[in-house]
Design brief:
It is built from 7 helices and 15 strands. The chain has about 325 residues and is of the alpha/beta class.
């Protein structure tokens, strides 16, 4: 009778005791090395996905064990790198994937992949690559080293997976101009090293999580053109390194946060085209001193007048109210 992909793999490979010097059949591959490898794969991929022959995980495993030109010659860690990257390619539906996997034997030379001197993956850049799939949770395998992810300018679907939130070493995350859905999780607080977060022009919903203000190293926060609702977090003043903020073209409500003035390095703030209401906080009178030089608040429901201090400026910064 037919058995699952995972059962087949363990039956054929885990019980091997020697790595064969020559392989007469693609199903006789890793020998004793397969046990550790398959246990590691089982830790990052679900048995359900491995059992499904149509899944990215099952296809990546089959490629690794049967078609990888380096099969049987690499350490478990390198084989895991290759499996994980193959899952990412397949899940995101990278066009002409066969050429990407076979063209270069060293995975550090694969399309969009950059490694450090130790061979650890630190960047994955697949922007504007005609991607139409989903970001797989297996990306969390690179959590100890991955610093830069760019999947922007594609047609990625689905939500941000938990695996992406586990990347604690991330410095740059670019997922703008895709088709991401779902909410922005409170797990954003895991991105403690993040400098740049670009999530603009997607279909994200829900509130902007308060936990995002715990990203004390963040300089660019781009969330425009989504469907975020609720208030702008009042604790935004905790983001002392914030330089560029774009929350425009959402459905945000409540008042303008007076605490925004606590973002002492902020120079550009775009809050237009929301449903913000109430007066302009008096703390915004600092506009143009050593604070914001570019502010947009138009197309909201603001009331009251402009801060009187603005009238004393000989040269106001660019401001749309």
């Amino acid at each position: 009778p037919n058995s699952s992909v995972a059962e087949d793999v363990f039956r054929v490979f885990v019980n091997e005791v020697e790595i064969r010097a020559e392989q007469k059949n693609n199903s006789e591959i890793f020998g004793s090395a397969s046990s550790a490898l398959l246990k590691n794969i089982d830790q990052i991929s679900s048995s359900t996905s491995l059992d499904d022959p149509t899944s990215a995980q099952s296809k990546a495993l089959k490629w690794l064990l049967e078609q990888d030109p380096c099969r049987g010659t690499l350490s478990t860690s390198r084989s895991m790198n290759r499996y994980t990257i193959a899952v990412i390619y397949l899940s995101l539906r990278l066009p002409n994937i066969a050429a990407h996997l076979v063209g270069q034997e060293n995975e550090c030379s694969w399309t969009g992949v950059t490694c450090d001197a130790a061979g650890d993956v630190i960047k994955i850049e697949l922007q504007n690559s005609q991607l139409t799939g989903e970001v797989p949770s297996e990306i969390h395998y690179f959590a100890p080293t991955l610093e830069h992810v760019d999947f922007s300018e594609n047609n990625i679907v689905g939500s941000i997976p938990d695996g992406l939130y586990s990347l604690r070493k991330l410095i740059n995350l670019y997922l703008h101009n895709t088709a991401l859905t779902g909410t922005l999780s409170s797990k954003v607080e895991n991105w403690v090293e993040l400098n740049n977060l670009y999530l603009g022009n997607n279909e994200l919903i829900g509130e902007v999580p308060t936990e995002i203000t715990r990203l004390r190293k963040l300089r660019f926060l781009i969330l425009h053109a989504n469907k975020f609702k609720g208030n702008i977090p009042s604790s935004i003043n905790e983001m002392k390194n914030l330089f560029y903020l774009d929350l425009s073209y959402n459905d945000l409500t409540g008042g303008l946060p007076g605490s925004l003035s606590g973002c002492t390095k902020l120079r550009h703030a775009y809050l237009d085209h929301n449903k913000l209401s109430g007066p302009i906080p008096s703390s915004y009178s600092r506009l143009g001193d050593d604070w914001i030089i570019d502010l947009t608040m138009d197309s909201n429901q603001l009331t009251g007048g402009l801060p009187s201090e603005w009238g004393d400026r000989k040269k106001l910064p660019e401001c749309f109210v």
